[in-house]
Amino acid sequence: MEMSRRAVLTATAALPVAARAGAPKKLPDRSAFDVEGTYLDSGTMHPPARGARAAVADYFARRGTAADYPIHAVEERVKERFARLVGASPAELAFVQSTTAGEQMVIDALDLPRAGGRIVTDTLHFFGSFYLYEELARRGMDVAWLRPRDGRIAIEDYERAITPGTRLVSLSLVSTYNGFEHDLKRVCEIAHARGALVYADIIHAAGAVPIDLHGSGVDFAATASYKWLMGDFGIGFLYARADRMDRLTRKRFGYYGLARFTPHVYPFDPPGDTVADVAARDDAEGMFAMGTRSHAGIVQLDWSLGYLLDLGVDRLTAWRQPLLDRLRVGLEAKGYSVATPPGCRAPLMTCVLADARAKLGERLTNAGVRITLSKNRFRVCPSMFNGEQDIDRLLDALPRA
C-alpha cells in the first residue's frame, strides 16, 4: 500500500523548483503575495503566496500526464514539515478535511457520548463547537462551560472544573474570538493528574505562534490550513499522541487507513476465505484516515510550510508584536473597546462595537481596507506582508467610537 522510503525520497528529490520556498531577508514580505488594498483579514482567510500558486499550477499541468506529480512523496513531506512546525512526529498526524472534522473524530474515537462522563470547555473555544458540546450535553454528557474574565479563561477555573470523572478538556489554544492564548501545558498537567485527556483547536495558533505539541503534553489537536498555514479549504491535520492510540475506538474504516490490502475476488487474485485480507495502519492515519483528500491543497501546503519553516514562527512573532502594540494604542485612542487581553502574541485583535458591520462596512470598503466584520464586533489580523502603513490606513479609516 505505502511507498517505500527510498521511493519517497527519490520522488521528493525530483520535485520542481516551484515547490521549494525560501525565507525573506526582511519583513514585511510584500513581494511573495499579490494583495490588493489593505488586507488585514488573514485570520479569516490567508492570501495564497505567489510561490504556492505556481506550485499548484505546476501540479495541475502535470496531473495525469507522463510527468505525473509525485503526490505521495509530497504528502509525506508535508507531514514532516507540519510535524516540525508544531513539535510532533509525522506518524501522529492524519490529514483531515477541517478542524471541525478533526474535533468530531476525536469525540467519536473516545466513544462519546456513549461512554459518559464530564467534558470541560470554555466560551472562548470556536463558536462552531458550541453546537457539538451542547448536543453532547443533550445526549447525557456532563458539559461544563467556563466563561472568560477580562478576556481570559483563568487557570484556576480549569482547576476547579476538571473533576474526577472528566473525560475530555476541549479548548482553542488561541481563541478565534479575541486571541487569548491558553497555558496549554498547565491545562494538560491539571487534566492528566485527574485522568482527563485534552483536545486543542490550533487553527489560530499553527503558523501564527510557536507551538510544541509534545512539550505541552496535549493529547489531540486539529487545524485546517486556510488561515495561518497559508493553505486552502478542505485540507488540514489531526494530531493524536502516539501513546494515546490504545485508548481510542476505531470508528472509521477507510482505504487510506490500510497498511495491507489483498483482495480475493478479481481474476488472478490469490485464493482466500474472505473477499479481502486487510490490516490497518497503527498510526494516526490508520485510526482516522478515510478516502481521498485535496491534492492541490497539499501541494499548496508543501510550499507554504517550507516558507514558514524557513521564516521561523519565533521570528515572525517577534517582528509582529510592535504592529499589534501600534494597533492597540490606535484603537484605544479612538475610543474602541478592545476585547483582546494585553500581552497576547497571536496576530488577532478584536473590538466590541454594537452594529459594527452596519457602522463600518461601507466606510472600510471605500477606503480599500478589509478586516473581519461581525454584527457587534470587528477583528484585525495582520500577517507577514503587512506593515505599519497598513495599520495606519485602518486607523485613519475608522471613525471615533
UniProtKB/TrEMBL annotation:
Domain Aminotransferase class V: residue ranges: 74-358
Record GO terms (molecular function): transaminase activity
Keywords on record: Aminotransferase, Pyridoxal phosphate, Transferase
Membrane-traversing stretches: none
Domain of life, source organism: Bacteria
Xref: InterPro entries: Aminotrans_V_dom (IPR000192), PyrdxlP-dep_Trfase (IPR015424), PyrdxlP-dep_Trfase_major (IPR015421), PyrdxlP-dep_Trfase_small (IPR015422), TAT_signal (IPR006311)
Species of the source: Pelagerythrobacter rhizovicinus
Protein known as: Aminotransferase class V-fold PLP-dependent enzyme
